[in-house]
Amino acid sequence: MRYLSAGQDRYQPCCRKGEEAMSPKMSRREFLQHTLTGTGIAVAVTMTPLGFRVFSAADAAAGDFNPSVWLTIAPNETVTVLVAKSEMGQGVSTSLPMLVADELEANWESIKFVFAPADDKFRDPVWGTQATGGSTSIRHLYEPLRLAGAAAREMLIAAAAREWKVAADECVAANGLVRHKRKLKSLSFGQLTSLVAGIEPPAKPKLKSPQEFRLIGKAIPRLDVPEKVSGAAIFGLDVKVPGMLIAAVAHSPLIGASPASFNKGAALKIKGVRHVISLQKGVAVCADSFPAARKGVDSLKATWEGGDRTLDNASLYARFAKALNEPGIKAKEIGNTATAMSSAAKKLEATFSLPYLAHATMEPMNCTAHITASRCEVWAPTQNQTGVKALAEKISGLPADKVFVNTTYLGGGFGRRFETDVVEEALHLAKVTGKPVKVIWTREDDFRNDFYRPMNLSRVAASLDAQGKISGWEHKVVCPSIFARVFPDTMKFGVDQAAVEGVANLDYEVPNLDVNYVRIDTPVPVGFWRSVGSSHNAFVVETMMDELARLAGSDPVEFRLAHLGGNPNAYAVVKTASMKAGWGKPLAAGKGRGFAFHRSFDTNVAMVAEVEVDRKSGVIKVSRVVCAVDCGQVVNPDIVKSQIEGAVCFGLSAALNERVEIAKGGVVSGNFSNYDLLRMNEAPKIEVHLVKGQEKPGGIGEPGVPPIAPAVANAVFAATGVRFRELPLAPKTVLKALKKS
Amino acid sequence: MISLTVNGKKYQVDAAPDSKLLWVLREQLGLTGTKFGCGEGMCGACTVLVDGKARRSCVTPVSAVKGKKVVTIEGLPESHPLKLAWIAEQVPQCGYCQPGQIMQAAALLNEHPKPTESEIDSAMSGCLCRCGTYQRVKIAINRAAGKGKKP
């Protein structure tokens, strides 16, 4: 722990001045100077192989620390929390400051937040990289941020005690003040910032017990909401840098093609067009305005080389189907499924198919960059600060301390903004032009140049014993690998952990389990999409569970409970959802209820969907979804609920509507006219019930997505008797199946 | 030069008549609360009021609003019942589509001060929200319309 230099009462987003003061390379002398002259206080917490600890003066002198979390207290009482995670709607700009403020005993009204710059100090303590994803923000920062708050609180108390010449344990911090327990004395945090010099950081700050939480667990209004309602919130698209050019890009209609020829002269004739620059995957036009840049792109008449014109949905399906007959790599083996199958009372085999999906963030991909001889600055709505910074250093050729990455609000992320492709375009254009350049993709660019949720083909064979319990489960997943490209080091024996998540770690008690992974590589780029592998595996497993329940002659909920006996937390979530939904109670004719449970990102979620199927149009109307969620210690229940409400809509949109159309070598889906998302008239009434079970915090951004598709498909079966093993449940598909039945 | 009235203020802008209102607002007037989402009027992120009616500014030529009153999210008072309801119900997640949702809702309330469920659905279904805030949007509209909290 240490203090900031005098006068630093306001954090600077780019950290230019602060950067020097906070450099890990600071000498002991410099450190002591800051300590002695400080009028503000800053706290950092480091991650060591042994766990978290507050760093001390000695560490600072050694220069070998890697702090992950920061807060500053200014003389004017403002407590600024540096949020080292990207705000893409999941509420981190409120929930993370809550962790700090609670332990600090700050007055919540004086809390402000700023997004941390890209810097080694802000690397995620578990991952070692500054990025947001995997529903990890609370899970990874729950302890370090609280430690940061607690350490600062103890130092402020120690400073007050020294000032009053009393013992520290006679003083208490609350609501932004330290007071003496008996004497009528108090000092505000702001006043104490000038009195903390020389106070040693506590070796082990004492964390509150959950019973002592003042903020954690409360539905505190989000800090980002007022400016998102006023229209003042700055997203990547809203960044304005003096003298900046706006770039539009002509991208190839073919996957994997690059520019062959284009009419540069025609584009340069357009009023406002300044530069035409060839990129690896396209041709960029830089202009004074976006409309001018687009006009420039339209006049390029670019031609392309490369790509594969035979690529389409049908040929891709054929490749996946062929791969389904390959043995694959063993991802999990428990017992002996062959024996289970041969002695089975009943057996069931089924194949499931799920399509490529697009992220379709409401804010199209964009990035602003500026490179000069001595400085590189990037403004990006990114989930991957470490990746952006590395790219900026590489393309600018400048050292790390001359490269600044500013994270704006993200107009949706869902995994898409972990990729840095548009950042690379902006950096190249900034380098060539020497001017600040903002690259804006159109919706069509966005749909056709995505890193899609992988298509997936799965086959499951399962057996029931004489008691109607699952005795064997053989599961084969054919799926392209995301991790092989993004984190190749995590590929264990060739298995992509995401491709088999939720299956290799099946929650149900199955004595004989066999999971095989067949990796398939196609030209279609794939990436992280909200809930990743669970987005397909939950559909497969939970549909299968529904089918097996019926084969066993059991109620689907009872059947699941019978296979969750050793897991009281999962059991409670299943029980809660079914009770709250009125499972088993009669429904109007033509309606059906479906159930699904899935654990992902350390959180248990169960859902009951109520649907009605219009037999004439094939339209499925989901009227009500009841959710039970156990994510352990809840930081902000209203944010948790909103994440589940949102995840239900996100997953339902995919279940009912979404499929990326690929034809003649390229993605046809280009706008909401041919890749529509769930709209208000299709949105169900959603109830979220929080269940107290597990102790540790679980993730919340993603776990609400996986259960909704199988819950709906199972409800459609209950309503119509028709089983769907393929998504989306588009009216045409539904109608065809209803007619067949 | 084209003359415009936006949020009660008169502007002269140097733009071709077929320039879309969205980019004039964002790039020339600095009103970035109005968002670009699809460029085809399919998602509603660019919704503004033109003489009190909801218009998709991404497909509206600037010449079409000559002599008319344009209101953007920045021009809706902070004390407007919709803005207060949006905060009370904690509607936004990522927040990108919300200015469009609010302006569309403002047009709805201009026409139907006490909208029915189906009037809300039909007015609001042109505004996409990828975060899935629909339930709260609905509750907030009802709250602003003085119809209580329940959707």
Automatic annotation (TrEMBL), chain A:
Protein name: Xanthine dehydrogenase family protein molybdopterin-binding subunit
InterPro entries xrefs: Ald_Oxase/Xan_DH_a/b, AldOxase/xan_DH_MoCoBD1, AldOxase/xan_DH_MoCoBD2, AldOxase/xan_DH_Mopterin-bd_sf, N-heterocyclic_Hydroxylase, OxRdtase_Mopterin-bd_su_IorB
Molecular-function GO terms, alphabetical: oxidoreductase activity
Limits of the Aldehyde oxidase/xanthine dehydrogenase a/b hammerhead domain: 230-308
Coiled coil: none
Gene3D superfamilies listed in its UniProt record: Aldehyde oxidase/xanthine dehydrogenase, a/b hammerhead, Aldehyde oxidase/xanthine dehydrogenase, molybdopterin binding domain
Organism for this UniProt entry: Geoanaerobacter pelophilus
The organism's place on the tree of life at top rank: Bacteria
TrEMBL record, chain B:
Molecular function as annotated in GO: 2 iron, 2 sulfur cluster binding; metal ion binding; oxidoreductase activity
Residues annotated as domain 2Fe-2S ferredoxin-type: 1-76
Pfam families noted in UniProt: Fer2, Fer2_2
Keywords of this entry: 2Fe-2S, Iron, Iron-sulfur, Metal-binding, Oxidoreductase
Entry coiled-coil feature ranges: none
InterPro entries: 2Fe-2S-bd, 2Fe-2S-bd_dom_sf, 2Fe-2S_ferredoxin-like_sf, 2Fe-2S_ferredoxin-type, 2Fe2S_fd_BS, Beta-grasp_dom_sf, Diverse_Oxidoreductases
Highest taxon of the lineage: Bacteria
Entry-linked PANTHER family: BLR6218 PROTEIN (PTHR44379:SF2), OXIDOREDUCTASE WITH IRON-SULFUR SUBUNIT (PTHR44379)
Protein name: (2Fe-2S)-binding protein
Organism expressing this protein natively: Geoanaerobacter pelophilus
